[in-house]
Amino acid sequence: MNRRHFLRTLALTSGLAIPFGRQAWAYSTSGSGNDQPHGRTPRLVVIMLRGAVDGLSIVAPHGDPDYARARPNIALAPPGAEDGLLDLDGHFGLHPALSPLFPLWQQGKLAFVHASGSPDPTRSHFDAQDYLESGTPGRKSTPDGWLNRLAALLPGEPSPMRAIGLGPVLPRILSGSAPATNLAFAAGKNKPELLDRPAVATAFDQLYRRDDRLGRAYAEGRETRKEILAAGSEQEMRMADNGAPLPNGFPAEAAHLARLMRGNDSIRLAFVALGGWDTHANQGKARGQLANRLAPLGQGLAELASRLGPLFDDTAIVVMSEFGRTVRENGNGGTDHGHGNVMWLLGGSLAGGRVLGEWPGLHPSRLYEGRDLAVTTDYRNVLGEVLRSHLRVQETAAANVFPGAPGGSNALRGMFRA
Questions:
Q1: Number of domains in the chain
Q2: pLDDT at site 219
Q3: Where is this region: Disordered (predicted)?
Q4: What angle is formed at CA 119 by the lines to CA 359 and CA 355, rounded to 5 degrees?
Q5: Residue 206 sits in the same domain as residue 279
Q6: Strand runs (DSSP E) across 147-261, as ranges?
Protein backbone atom coordinates (compact mmCIF):
# COMPACT_ATOMS: atom_id res chain seq x y z
CA MET A 1 0.00 0.00 0.00
CA ASN A 2 1.55 3.34 -1.02
CA ARG A 3 1.89 6.33 1.32
CA ARG A 4 -1.01 8.30 -0.20
CA HIS A 5 -3.33 5.27 0.01
CA PHE A 6 -2.28 4.68 3.62
CA LEU A 7 -2.90 8.27 4.69
CA ARG A 8 -6.28 8.33 2.94
CA THR A 9 -7.32 5.12 4.64
CA LEU A 10 -6.13 6.36 8.03
CA ALA A 11 -8.19 9.54 7.66
CA LEU A 12 -11.28 7.58 6.75
CA THR A 13 -10.95 5.28 9.72
CA SER A 14 -10.71 8.00 12.35
CA GLY A 15 -13.13 7.17 15.13
CA LEU A 16 -12.70 3.41 14.70
CA ALA A 17 -10.03 3.22 17.41
CA ILE A 18 -7.42 1.48 15.26
CA PRO A 19 -4.45 0.43 17.42
CA PHE A 20 -0.91 0.40 16.04
CA GLY A 21 0.51 -3.02 16.86
CA ARG A 22 0.16 -6.70 16.02
CA GLN A 23 -3.63 -6.48 15.79
CA ALA A 24 -3.73 -3.17 13.96
CA TRP A 25 -2.84 -4.34 10.47
CA ALA A 26 -3.24 -8.09 10.26
CA TYR A 27 -2.81 -8.87 6.61
CA SER A 28 -0.84 -11.03 4.23
CA THR A 29 1.06 -9.72 1.25
CA SER A 30 0.26 -11.93 -1.74
CA GLY A 31 -2.51 -11.66 -4.31
CA SER A 32 -3.17 -10.91 -7.95
CA GLY A 33 -5.73 -9.22 -10.16
CA ASN A 34 -6.36 -6.45 -12.63
CA ASP A 35 -7.90 -3.03 -12.17
CA GLN A 36 -11.49 -2.37 -13.21
CA PRO A 37 -11.39 1.39 -13.87
CA HIS A 38 -14.80 1.47 -15.53
CA GLY A 39 -18.20 0.02 -14.73
CA ARG A 40 -19.94 -0.76 -11.48
CA THR A 41 -18.03 -2.63 -8.82
CA PRO A 42 -20.02 -5.20 -6.80
CA ARG A 43 -19.27 -5.48 -3.09
CA LEU A 44 -20.15 -7.91 -0.31
CA VAL A 45 -20.61 -7.38 3.43
CA VAL A 46 -20.89 -10.47 5.65
CA ILE A 47 -22.26 -10.12 9.18
CA MET A 48 -21.91 -13.12 11.46
CA LEU A 49 -24.09 -13.49 14.55
CA ARG A 50 -21.94 -15.55 16.89
CA GLY A 51 -23.78 -17.64 19.46
CA ALA A 52 -26.51 -19.16 17.23
CA VAL A 53 -29.39 -16.74 16.82
CA ASP A 54 -32.96 -18.05 16.92
CA GLY A 55 -34.10 -17.84 13.31
CA LEU A 56 -37.58 -19.03 14.27
CA SER A 57 -38.05 -15.75 16.13
CA ILE A 58 -36.44 -13.56 13.48
CA VAL A 59 -38.63 -14.88 10.67
CA ALA A 60 -41.37 -16.69 12.58
CA PRO A 61 -43.64 -19.17 10.75
CA HIS A 62 -46.86 -17.89 12.29
CA GLY A 63 -48.80 -19.79 9.64
CA ASP A 64 -47.41 -23.11 10.86
CA PRO A 65 -49.70 -24.39 13.68
CA ASP A 66 -46.83 -26.29 15.29
CA TYR A 67 -44.91 -23.05 15.89
CA ALA A 68 -47.11 -21.75 18.72
CA ARG A 69 -47.63 -25.25 20.13
CA ALA A 70 -43.89 -25.78 20.50
CA ARG A 71 -43.37 -22.40 22.13
CA PRO A 72 -46.27 -21.64 24.49
CA ASN A 73 -44.34 -18.89 26.30
CA ILE A 74 -42.01 -17.38 23.70
CA ALA A 75 -43.88 -17.68 20.39
CA LEU A 76 -44.41 -14.24 18.92
CA ALA A 77 -47.97 -13.02 18.46
CA PRO A 78 -49.38 -13.15 14.92
CA PRO A 79 -49.54 -10.02 12.74
CA GLY A 80 -52.22 -7.58 13.84
CA ALA A 81 -52.04 -8.54 17.51
CA GLU A 82 -50.38 -6.39 20.16
CA ASP A 83 -46.58 -6.67 19.79
CA GLY A 84 -47.28 -8.93 16.83
CA LEU A 85 -45.07 -9.96 13.96
CA LEU A 86 -44.74 -7.85 10.83
CA ASP A 87 -46.40 -9.95 8.17
CA LEU A 88 -44.14 -10.89 5.26
CA ASP A 89 -46.19 -13.23 3.10
CA GLY A 90 -49.10 -14.60 5.13
CA HIS A 91 -47.05 -17.48 6.49
CA PHE A 92 -43.89 -15.84 7.84
CA GLY A 93 -43.57 -12.72 9.96
CA LEU A 94 -40.64 -10.49 10.89
CA HIS A 95 -39.76 -9.88 14.54
CA PRO A 96 -41.16 -6.45 15.48
CA ALA A 97 -37.77 -5.36 16.87
CA LEU A 98 -36.54 -5.43 13.28
CA SER A 99 -39.13 -2.91 12.08
CA PRO A 100 -36.42 -0.54 10.70
CA LEU A 101 -35.80 -3.18 8.03
CA PHE A 102 -39.44 -3.55 6.98
CA PRO A 103 -39.28 -0.72 4.40
CA LEU A 104 -36.44 -2.58 2.68
CA TRP A 105 -38.67 -5.66 2.49
CA GLN A 106 -41.43 -3.61 0.94
CA GLN A 107 -38.96 -2.20 -1.59
CA GLY A 108 -37.76 -5.68 -2.55
CA LYS A 109 -34.30 -5.05 -1.09
CA LEU A 110 -34.53 -7.61 1.73
CA ALA A 111 -35.00 -11.38 1.50
CA PHE A 112 -34.57 -14.43 3.70
CA VAL A 113 -33.58 -18.03 3.07
CA HIS A 114 -35.28 -20.15 5.72
CA ALA A 115 -34.33 -23.65 6.84
CA SER A 116 -30.77 -22.92 5.70
CA GLY A 117 -27.53 -23.84 7.37
CA SER A 118 -24.63 -26.23 7.50
CA PRO A 119 -25.04 -29.92 6.69
CA ASP A 120 -22.65 -30.76 9.54
CA PRO A 121 -24.58 -31.97 12.62
CA THR A 122 -22.36 -30.34 15.26
CA ARG A 123 -23.97 -28.25 17.99
CA SER A 124 -20.61 -26.90 19.15
CA HIS A 125 -20.36 -23.14 18.70
CA PHE A 126 -16.65 -23.32 18.03
CA ASP A 127 -16.74 -26.09 15.43
CA ALA A 128 -19.82 -24.70 13.68
CA GLN A 129 -18.36 -21.19 13.49
CA ASP A 130 -15.11 -22.60 12.16
CA TYR A 131 -16.97 -24.49 9.41
CA LEU A 132 -19.05 -21.44 8.55
CA GLU A 133 -15.92 -19.33 8.16
CA SER A 134 -13.77 -21.92 6.39
CA GLY A 135 -16.56 -22.87 3.99
CA THR A 136 -15.75 -26.56 4.44
CA PRO A 137 -18.26 -28.14 6.88
CA GLY A 138 -16.85 -31.13 8.74
CA ARG A 139 -13.26 -30.41 7.76
CA LYS A 140 -11.08 -28.76 10.40
CA SER A 141 -7.85 -28.87 8.40
CA THR A 142 -8.81 -26.10 5.94
CA PRO A 143 -6.03 -23.51 6.33
CA ASP A 144 -7.88 -20.40 5.11
CA GLY A 145 -11.28 -18.72 5.22
CA TRP A 146 -13.69 -18.61 2.29
CA LEU A 147 -13.80 -14.80 2.23
CA ASN A 148 -10.02 -14.77 1.84
CA ARG A 149 -10.21 -17.27 -1.03
CA LEU A 150 -12.84 -15.06 -2.62
CA ALA A 151 -10.64 -11.97 -2.24
CA ALA A 152 -7.90 -13.72 -4.22
CA LEU A 153 -10.30 -14.17 -7.16
CA LEU A 154 -11.52 -10.60 -7.46
CA PRO A 155 -10.11 -8.32 -10.15
CA GLY A 156 -8.32 -5.14 -9.24
CA GLU A 157 -5.04 -4.08 -7.69
CA PRO A 158 -4.01 -6.32 -4.75
CA SER A 159 -4.50 -4.25 -1.64
CA PRO A 160 -4.83 -4.94 2.10
CA MET A 161 -8.02 -2.87 1.95
CA ARG A 162 -9.69 -5.16 -0.59
CA ALA A 163 -11.03 -7.31 2.26
CA ILE A 164 -11.51 -5.79 5.71
CA GLY A 165 -12.75 -7.08 9.04
CA LEU A 166 -14.04 -5.06 11.97
CA GLY A 167 -13.20 -6.67 15.28
CA PRO A 168 -10.50 -7.36 17.88
CA VAL A 169 -8.44 -9.73 15.68
CA LEU A 170 -8.33 -10.87 12.08
CA PRO A 171 -11.21 -13.38 11.84
CA ARG A 172 -10.89 -16.94 10.59
CA ILE A 173 -12.98 -16.12 7.52
CA LEU A 174 -10.34 -13.60 6.32
CA SER A 175 -7.25 -15.66 7.15
CA GLY A 176 -5.17 -16.85 4.21
CA SER A 177 -2.74 -15.74 1.52
CA ALA A 178 -4.78 -12.91 0.00
CA PRO A 179 -4.39 -9.37 1.40
CA ALA A 180 -6.79 -8.57 4.24
CA THR A 181 -6.91 -5.87 6.91
CA ASN A 182 -8.38 -5.87 10.39
CA LEU A 183 -9.68 -2.68 11.99
CA ALA A 184 -10.54 -2.45 15.68
CA PHE A 185 -14.23 -2.56 16.49
CA ALA A 186 -14.72 0.21 19.04
CA ALA A 187 -18.32 -0.22 20.21
CA GLY A 188 -20.03 -2.79 22.37
CA LYS A 189 -17.09 -4.35 24.18
CA ASN A 190 -18.32 -7.46 25.97
CA LYS A 191 -16.13 -7.50 29.05
CA PRO A 192 -16.78 -8.26 32.73
CA GLU A 193 -18.07 -5.26 34.64
CA LEU A 194 -16.07 -3.58 37.41
CA LEU A 195 -18.73 -4.66 39.92
CA ASP A 196 -18.08 -8.30 38.99
CA ARG A 197 -14.87 -8.05 41.05
CA PRO A 198 -15.70 -9.31 44.58
CA ALA A 199 -13.66 -6.66 46.44
CA VAL A 200 -15.21 -3.82 44.46
CA ALA A 201 -18.72 -5.26 44.85
CA THR A 202 -18.27 -5.52 48.64
CA ALA A 203 -17.11 -1.92 48.91
CA PHE A 204 -20.10 -0.66 46.90
CA ASP A 205 -22.47 -2.81 48.94
CA GLN A 206 -21.26 -1.10 52.13
CA LEU A 207 -21.37 2.36 50.55
CA TYR A 208 -24.96 2.17 49.29
CA ARG A 209 -26.24 0.48 52.42
CA ARG A 210 -26.26 3.90 54.10
CA ASP A 211 -28.77 5.44 51.68
CA ASP A 212 -32.26 3.89 51.59
CA ARG A 213 -33.33 5.29 48.21
CA LEU A 214 -30.04 4.82 46.36
CA GLY A 215 -29.42 1.57 48.20
CA ARG A 216 -32.71 0.16 46.96
CA ALA A 217 -31.94 1.09 43.34
CA TYR A 218 -28.43 -0.30 43.66
CA ALA A 219 -29.69 -3.57 45.14
CA GLU A 220 -32.25 -3.98 42.37
CA GLY A 221 -29.57 -3.44 39.77
CA ARG A 222 -27.28 -5.96 41.41
CA GLU A 223 -30.11 -8.49 41.60
CA THR A 224 -30.86 -8.09 37.91
CA ARG A 225 -27.17 -8.63 37.16
CA LYS A 226 -27.20 -11.83 39.24
CA GLU A 227 -30.17 -13.16 37.28
CA ILE A 228 -28.27 -12.63 34.04
CA LEU A 229 -25.24 -14.41 35.49
CA ALA A 230 -27.35 -17.29 36.85
CA ALA A 231 -26.20 -20.79 36.03
CA GLY A 232 -23.12 -19.44 34.26
CA SER A 233 -25.23 -18.31 31.30
CA GLU A 234 -23.22 -15.15 30.66
CA GLN A 235 -19.96 -17.05 30.92
CA GLU A 236 -21.21 -19.48 28.28
CA MET A 237 -22.49 -16.65 26.11
CA ARG A 238 -19.11 -14.93 26.20
CA MET A 239 -17.44 -18.14 25.11
CA ALA A 240 -19.98 -18.59 22.30
CA ASP A 241 -19.37 -15.00 21.17
CA ASN A 242 -15.70 -15.83 20.50
CA GLY A 243 -14.65 -12.25 21.25
CA ALA A 244 -17.40 -10.58 19.21
CA PRO A 245 -19.02 -7.53 20.83
CA LEU A 246 -22.71 -7.18 21.54
CA PRO A 247 -24.71 -5.39 18.82
CA ASN A 248 -25.43 -2.35 21.02
CA GLY A 249 -22.90 -0.16 19.22
CA PHE A 250 -23.57 -1.57 15.77
CA PRO A 251 -25.56 1.39 14.39
CA ALA A 252 -22.55 3.67 14.87
CA GLU A 253 -20.14 1.06 13.53
CA ALA A 254 -22.38 0.52 10.50
CA ALA A 255 -22.21 4.23 9.75
CA HIS A 256 -18.40 4.06 9.98
CA LEU A 257 -18.31 1.04 7.68
CA ALA A 258 -20.48 2.84 5.12
CA ARG A 259 -18.19 5.85 5.26
CA LEU A 260 -15.16 3.62 4.71
CA MET A 261 -16.75 1.88 1.73
CA ARG A 262 -17.90 5.10 0.11
CA GLY A 263 -14.50 6.71 0.57
CA ASN A 264 -12.28 3.83 -0.49
CA ASP A 265 -12.92 2.23 -3.87
CA SER A 266 -10.57 -0.66 -3.16
CA ILE A 267 -12.85 -2.15 -0.46
CA ARG A 268 -14.71 -5.06 -2.02
CA LEU A 269 -15.37 -7.35 0.95
CA ALA A 270 -16.15 -6.56 4.59
CA PHE A 271 -16.82 -8.76 7.61
CA VAL A 272 -18.35 -7.94 11.00
CA ALA A 273 -19.07 -10.35 13.87
CA LEU A 274 -21.59 -9.59 16.61
CA GLY A 275 -22.21 -11.63 19.76
CA GLY A 276 -24.92 -12.15 22.35
CA TRP A 277 -27.23 -14.61 20.57
CA ASP A 278 -26.89 -17.71 22.80
CA THR A 279 -30.33 -17.39 24.43
CA HIS A 280 -30.59 -20.44 26.67
CA ALA A 281 -32.71 -18.55 29.21
CA ASN A 282 -35.13 -15.62 29.31
CA GLN A 283 -35.20 -15.23 25.55
CA GLY A 284 -38.40 -13.19 25.55
CA LYS A 285 -40.91 -12.48 22.82
CA ALA A 286 -41.45 -9.05 21.26
CA ARG A 287 -39.62 -7.67 24.29
CA GLY A 288 -36.78 -9.10 26.32
CA GLN A 289 -33.25 -10.33 25.80
CA LEU A 290 -33.47 -11.33 22.14
CA ALA A 291 -35.47 -8.24 21.17
CA ASN A 292 -32.86 -6.06 22.89
CA ARG A 293 -30.19 -7.61 20.67
CA LEU A 294 -32.24 -7.47 17.47
CA ALA A 295 -33.20 -3.80 17.82
CA PRO A 296 -29.67 -2.34 17.37
CA LEU A 297 -28.91 -4.99 14.73
CA GLY A 298 -31.92 -3.89 12.68
CA GLN A 299 -31.10 -0.23 13.21
CA GLY A 300 -27.50 -0.82 12.17
CA LEU A 301 -28.42 -2.68 9.00
CA ALA A 302 -30.89 0.04 8.04
CA GLU A 303 -28.20 2.63 8.78
CA LEU A 304 -25.69 0.78 6.64
CA ALA A 305 -28.12 0.58 3.71
CA SER A 306 -28.98 4.27 4.03
CA ARG A 307 -25.43 5.56 4.52
CA LEU A 308 -24.10 3.57 1.57
CA GLY A 309 -26.34 5.69 -0.64
CA PRO A 310 -25.97 4.82 -4.35
CA LEU A 311 -23.33 2.24 -3.39
CA PHE A 312 -26.09 0.12 -1.84
CA ASP A 313 -27.19 -0.76 -5.38
CA ASP A 314 -23.83 -2.49 -5.86
CA THR A 315 -23.62 -4.07 -2.41
CA ALA A 316 -24.95 -7.38 -1.10
CA ILE A 317 -25.21 -7.85 2.66
CA VAL A 318 -25.44 -11.37 4.08
CA VAL A 319 -26.31 -12.07 7.72
CA MET A 320 -25.71 -15.59 9.02
CA SER A 321 -25.19 -17.57 12.23
CA GLU A 322 -23.52 -20.91 12.97
CA PHE A 323 -26.78 -22.81 13.54
CA GLY A 324 -30.32 -22.27 14.75
CA ARG A 325 -32.04 -23.17 17.99
CA THR A 326 -34.43 -25.85 19.12
CA VAL A 327 -38.02 -25.64 17.93
CA ARG A 328 -39.36 -26.26 21.43
CA GLU A 329 -38.63 -23.79 24.20
CA ASN A 330 -36.82 -25.11 27.26
CA GLY A 331 -37.74 -24.85 30.94
CA ASN A 332 -35.81 -21.60 31.37
CA GLY A 333 -37.83 -19.62 28.86
CA GLY A 334 -35.12 -19.97 26.23
CA THR A 335 -33.98 -22.27 23.46
CA ASP A 336 -31.01 -24.61 23.10
CA HIS A 337 -28.57 -25.37 20.31
CA GLY A 338 -30.36 -26.48 17.17
CA HIS A 339 -29.73 -27.01 13.47
CA GLY A 340 -31.57 -25.14 10.69
CA ASN A 341 -31.68 -21.35 10.72
CA VAL A 342 -32.46 -18.36 8.50
CA MET A 343 -30.03 -16.35 6.36
CA TRP A 344 -30.69 -12.68 5.58
CA LEU A 345 -29.94 -10.95 2.29
CA LEU A 346 -30.00 -7.21 1.70
CA GLY A 347 -29.03 -5.18 -1.34
CA GLY A 348 -30.18 -2.63 -3.88
CA SER A 349 -30.01 -5.14 -6.74
CA LEU A 350 -31.65 -7.94 -4.77
CA ALA A 351 -34.89 -9.39 -6.12
CA GLY A 352 -36.20 -9.46 -2.57
CA GLY A 353 -39.50 -9.25 -0.76
CA ARG A 354 -39.45 -13.06 -0.63
CA VAL A 355 -38.76 -15.88 1.84
CA LEU A 356 -36.71 -18.30 -0.23
CA GLY A 357 -35.87 -21.95 0.30
CA GLU A 358 -37.92 -25.06 0.96
CA TRP A 359 -39.89 -24.90 4.20
CA PRO A 360 -39.92 -28.37 5.83
CA GLY A 361 -42.51 -27.54 8.48
CA LEU A 362 -42.38 -27.90 12.25
CA HIS A 363 -44.48 -31.01 12.73
CA PRO A 364 -42.60 -33.38 15.06
CA SER A 365 -42.27 -35.91 12.23
CA ARG A 366 -40.44 -33.31 10.12
CA LEU A 367 -37.90 -32.16 12.69
CA TYR A 368 -34.21 -32.91 12.44
CA GLU A 369 -33.37 -35.53 15.09
CA GLY A 370 -36.85 -34.95 16.48
CA ARG A 371 -36.02 -31.50 17.87
CA ASP A 372 -34.70 -29.01 15.30
CA LEU A 373 -35.67 -27.21 12.14
CA ALA A 374 -34.25 -29.25 9.27
CA VAL A 375 -31.69 -27.78 6.86
CA THR A 376 -33.10 -27.86 3.33
CA THR A 377 -30.72 -25.28 1.82
CA ASP A 378 -26.96 -25.55 2.31
CA TYR A 379 -25.53 -22.17 3.32
CA ARG A 380 -22.86 -22.59 0.63
CA ASN A 381 -25.57 -22.65 -2.02
CA VAL A 382 -26.82 -19.26 -0.84
CA LEU A 383 -23.31 -17.79 -0.77
CA GLY A 384 -22.46 -19.43 -4.08
CA GLU A 385 -25.44 -17.70 -5.69
CA VAL A 386 -24.24 -14.38 -4.26
CA LEU A 387 -20.82 -15.04 -5.78
CA ARG A 388 -22.19 -15.95 -9.20
CA SER A 389 -25.11 -13.56 -9.58
CA HIS A 390 -23.87 -10.53 -7.66
CA LEU A 391 -20.06 -10.65 -7.68
CA ARG A 392 -20.03 -12.23 -11.15
CA VAL A 393 -17.59 -14.96 -10.14
CA GLN A 394 -17.44 -17.77 -12.67
CA GLU A 395 -18.86 -21.17 -11.73
CA THR A 396 -15.49 -22.91 -11.70
CA ALA A 397 -13.95 -20.19 -9.54
CA ALA A 398 -16.89 -20.27 -7.11
CA ALA A 399 -16.27 -24.01 -6.72
CA ASN A 400 -12.77 -23.17 -5.48
CA VAL A 401 -14.21 -20.86 -2.84
CA PHE A 402 -16.54 -23.61 -1.59
CA PRO A 403 -14.89 -26.93 -2.49
CA GLY A 404 -17.20 -29.89 -2.17
CA ALA A 405 -20.35 -27.76 -2.04
CA PRO A 406 -23.51 -29.30 -3.53
CA GLY A 407 -24.86 -28.11 -6.85
CA GLY A 408 -26.76 -24.83 -6.98
CA SER A 409 -30.41 -24.72 -5.95
CA ASN A 410 -33.02 -23.74 -8.53
CA ALA A 411 -35.02 -22.14 -5.70
CA LEU A 412 -32.26 -19.54 -5.34
CA ARG A 413 -31.91 -18.61 -8.98
CA GLY A 414 -32.93 -15.06 -9.73
CA MET A 415 -32.02 -13.77 -6.26
CA PHE A 416 -30.49 -10.71 -7.91
CA ARG A 417 -31.82 -8.59 -10.73
CA ALA A 418 -29.69 -8.64 -13.86
A1: 2
A2: 63
A3: 120-144
A4: 25
A5: no
A6: 163-166, 181-183
